[in-house]
């Protein structure tokens, strides 16, 4: 347990929790993409998720919440520690160039924290104003109508578009950083790992941002 209080211990925790959340984001994007089929696609997908046994859903949510909280708390601790002047250690050292994304991980991370709280209030707790909360013809909750009502205004779609730019910046550095922490990057592999990380970040950005923008511009219609 003492290990978790070292700089490299904290980095490994950040990398493992971060990787789990990236995998969640990939699965979430694949699921959300059913919206391009139209109302029947995303409503059937949501119905399928909600028909899973409640204990499984709750355990999954508790694990995700724990990963998220640990990632945020350790991220804040690491930043305070690094700004205090202690050198940060990757498992294998490779030459790194500071980028805007790498210098601002704490700020993009905190902005994502605010976005996730908003997103949960929005679509999970459905507590934000102006949402269309109705059932579809089959009597199931109409997720499509809720999402479409949110993204039909510039402000509603704009919040998500800006948040996805922040997500892109965070993952642009975060994905290659986790490979370094796991000791998989060296001078030879770092350029490829950096490009692959940027590509994953770009695909997630493009996929997520396409949803609010397609609704705003009438490409996806109910
Ligand atoms: C355009 C972008 C997005 C859309 C349209 C969207 C849509 C949704 C919807 C409809 C739900 C509620 C699912 C339900 O209860 O049936 C949800 C839940 C959630 N979303 Fe997103 N999402 C987006 C982006 C993101 C991003 C970027 C993240 C974080 C990486 C994220 C994380 C979550 C989490 C943690 C939940 C709660 C899952 C649960 O209820 O167990 N979402 N999202």
UniProtKB/TrEMBL annotation:
Pfam families in UniProt: Sdh_cyt
Main location, first listed in the record: membrane
Keyword terms, alphabetized: Heme, Iron, Membrane, Metal-binding, Transmembrane, Transmembrane helix
Transmembrane segments: 12-36, 56-76, 105-123, 143-172, 193-220
MF annotations from Gene Ontology: metal ion binding
Record GO cellular component, one term: membrane
Localization, UniProt: Membrane
Name of the protein in its database record: Succinate dehydrogenase (Or fumarate reductase) cytochrome b subunit, b558 family
Organism field: Trichlorobacter lovleyi (strain ATCC BAA-1151 / DSM 17278 / SZ) (Geobacter lovleyi)
Species lineage: Bacteria, Pseudomonadati, Thermodesulfobacteriota, Desulfuromonadia, Geobacterales
